[in-house]
Amino acid sequence: METKEKFVSDLREILYNSHIPNISTVIDLVSVALKDFELRYKDTSLVLYDDSDKQIFHKFFVAKAVEGLSKNSLSYYNTIISNFLVKVGKHIKEISTDDVRIYLACKKLEKVSDNTLNNIRRVLSSFFSWCIEENYVVRNPMLRIKGVRQVKKIRKSLTEDEMEKLRYSARTKRDKAIIEFLFSTGCRVSEMTNVNRGDLDMANGQVDVLGKGRKFRTVYLSSRCKLAVQEYLSTRTDNLEALFISTWEGMKGGIGGTPVRMSKSAVEIMLRNLGERVGISNVHPHKFRRTAATTALKRGMPIEQVQRMLGHESIQTTTIYAQSTNDEVKLNHEKFIV
């Protein structure tokens, strides 16, 4: 089907679904109006206008890979920068502050969240700052682009009752071990899924994990966590080095199957399904990390040590977990004021 015919066909479908009367007459009039015009599909692929643009684009990602940016982060950067360059449609050296502002304004109209807008701004700032450092551009179009002011929400951690519900309702020893591991260590899910059996130091109740920036740190296993992990490992009959594994048939409801290292998405799906079964909304790996941090702070662990446990570069990031919830303020108000 030619482009013009496809356009008319799509238009007919849109008008039909809109319940507009006299559709045939409208289509006939549109067809007559288009007879002297040529229609082409809009090309939304990334076009780098010359070899210098291609070199800048690819060298940036080589540099970031050398710096230790993870595959997930590189993919995220690629998506954001590619989309930006497609929409702007200019040589990298010709992009202006106004181009960036218009792009961000369009994203705002698309109803993306303020957090997403700030992430886009952060990635583009990284890209153009690198371009300046490497002398690929003369002016940085991001210098006058301010961050979007966000409404700060206090994200909820799991309550003690919710933790017990999840522990009690976990269907397998593996799932129980994952819950205890995430809560005891405060690890990111990507850090946990990369752990191997040989990384465990059960005698000292600790494990070294590879965090952001490809930096190792030591995290610690509670007695409850050690017991759950040992019970899970006692069920393993495979030789796979990964600490946590999935089996393809097992994920489909069967038994056995080929064991593979458990992926981030598999952990997320397992926890989400577990939460839905027990009536707890929004259960995900990071919620256990948040719960570990808030629990440690409530029980008196110094914030500097919580920072080290979580692998935060800046203590400012850790202070987010120290913010009191309204329930805590109310409880202490009744204790000290009323």
Strands, helices and their partners?
Layout lengths: L2 H15 L5 H11 L17 H16 L4 H18 L8 H13 L4 H20 L26 H10 L3 H13 L3 H5 L6 E2 L4 E5 L5 E5 L2 H11 L11 E3 H4 L7 E3 L2 H15 L6 H14 L4 H8 L4 H5 L6 H11 L2
Antiparallel strand pairs: 1-2, 2-3, 4-5
Helix pairs in contact: 1-2, 8-10, 8-13
Report what the structure shows.
- The chain has 338 residues and is mainly alpha-helical.
- It folds into 3 domains: 3-33; 51-133, DNA polymerase, domain 1 (Orthogonal Bundle), CATH 1.10.150; 160-325, Orthogonal Bundle (hpI Integrase, Chain A), CATH 1.10.443.10.
- It contains 16 helices and 5 strands.
- It has helices spanning 3-17, 23-33, 51-66, 71-88, 97-109, 114-133, 160-169, 173-185, 189-193, 223-233, 248-251, 264-278, 285-298, 303-310, 315-319, 326-336, and strands at residues 200-201, 206-210, 216-220, 245-247, 259-261.
- The strands form 2 sheets. It has a 3-stranded antiparallel β-sheet with strand order 1-2-3. It has a two-stranded antiparallel sheet with strand order 4-5.
- Strand 2 and strand 3 (216-220) form a beta hairpin.
- Helix 8 packs antiparallel against helix 10 and helix 8 packs across helix 13 (285-298).
- The longest helix has 20 residues, at 114-133.
- It starts with a helix and ends with a helix.
